């Protein structure tokens, strides 16, 4: 993947409030669909930078896989404050909240 963490952060900053996307969707938008793990590393490295809404990036099934890096239930609380419902660490009605950058930003 030729993209940098900053390229990933630019996409993440575009995720609308109340929407989420996946690591893979970001990687696909940046031209390397198989680099979802690299996007995950970027999200882990972004903690502490409040300009990057990393809480809006989840796995392809809507699971809050990055929650450990937020401490406790903070990721869930941030998403719930944006109107999402979380049950068992998964976004309820995930498809209704799923934002696909390759469809939205082209």
Unreliably modeled segments: none
Number of helices: 6
CATH architecture designation = Orthogonal Bundle
Shape designation: globular
Q: Give the CATH class.
A: Mainly Alpha
- The CATH superfamily is Winged helix-like DNA-binding domain superfamily/Winged helix DNA-binding domain
**Element-level helix/strand string:** HEHHEHEEHH
Mean pLDDT: 92
Radius of gyration: 13 Å
Amino- and carboxy-terminal Cα gap: 20 Å
Number of domains: 1
Order of strands, main sheet, comes to 1-2
**CATH fold type:** Arc Repressor Mutant, subunit A
- The helicity comes to 25-40%
The biggest sheet, with number of strands, parallel, antiparallel or mixed sense and barrel status, is:
2 strands, parallel
Counting DSSP E segments of at least 2 residues, the number of strands comes to 4
Structural class: mainly alpha
Strand content: 5-15%
């Amino acid at each position: 993947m030729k993209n940098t963490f900053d390229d990933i952060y630019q996409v993440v900053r575009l995720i609308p409030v109340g929407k989420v996307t996946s690591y893979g969707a970001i990687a696909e938008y940046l031209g390397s669909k198989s680099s979802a793990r690299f996007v995950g590393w970027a999200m882990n490295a972004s903690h502490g930078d409040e300009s990057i809404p990393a809480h809006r990036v989840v796995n392809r099934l809507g699971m809050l896989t990055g929650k450990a890096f937020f401490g406790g239930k903070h990721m869930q609380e941030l998403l719930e404050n944006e109107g999402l419902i979380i049950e068992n660490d998964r976004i309820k009605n995930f498809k209704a909240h799923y934002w696909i950058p390759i469809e939205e930003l082209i």
